[in-house]
Design brief:
The chain has one domain: Gcn5-related N-acetyltransferase (GNAT) (Aminopeptidase). It is about 30% helix and about 35% strand. The chain contains 4 helices and 8 strands. An 8-stranded mixed sheet has the order 1-2-3-4-5-6-8-7, with helices on both faces.
């Protein structure tokens, strides 16, 4: 899936939203490494950021070429501030579903409106693809993300007890959330 460059207003300035390209791979991976180090809510630990750059470039190229995936970048001042991913289902019986796979934002850009803007763009892409149901999962202790998702119309539909175990042994539940476009959504 492809999204044209779009300028958005954020706190303290503007950002650009656009689809990721294979030549962005090293910068996206650097952003991922930063995000993994800045929050416990990513599904990998800092020492697990060891993919070879060329492997990640191949992954981004596969997303870039796919009609079923979108990796969206938020760029501030020429630097990737964050990224988000939407994956659509290919099979007919579940083609009405999509999944928000990741929303990652560098800490210096938290609470600037970037997450909301990226999600709005992913929701629009999902609607354009005739998706009627979006799904995501989030750590139960990630209050800012939960508040954002709820404000957009996502509702909790289940939990995975102790779905995340941090390196210090802390257990965190995962919350499954869904949005149904045919019902009232606030997006």
């Amino acid at each position: 899936m492809f999204r044209e460059v779009k300028e958005i207003a954020i706190r303290d300035g503007n950002a650009l939203l656009r689809s990721a390209r294979a030549d962005d791979a090293a910068d996206i991976y650097a952003c991922l490494r930063d995000c993994v180090c800045e929050t416990p809510y990513m599904y990998r630990s800092p020492d697990e950021c060891d993919d070879a750059p060329e492997k990640y470039e191949r992954y981004i190229k596969s997303v870039e070429d796919s009609p079923y995936s979108l990796k969206l970048l938020a760029i501030v001042g020429g630097r990737i501030a964050g990224f988000a991913r939407l994956d659509l289902e290919k099979r007919r019986k579940i083609r009405h579903r999509g999944e928000i796979g990741i929303v990652a934002i560098r800490k210096e850009f938290w609470r600037h409106g970037i997450g909301r803007a990226m999600l709005a763009e992913l929701l629009q892409a999902a609607r354009e693809a005739n998706v009627t149901q979006l799904e995501l999962d989030v750590a139960a202790t990630n209050a800012p993300a939960l508040a954002l998702y709820k404000s957009l119309g996502f509702v909790e539909t289940g939990r995975r007890k102790h779905g995340i175990i941090l390196d210090d042994g802390t257990e965190i539940d995962e919350i499954f959330m869904q949005m149904f476009f045919d019902e009232a959504c606030r997006c």
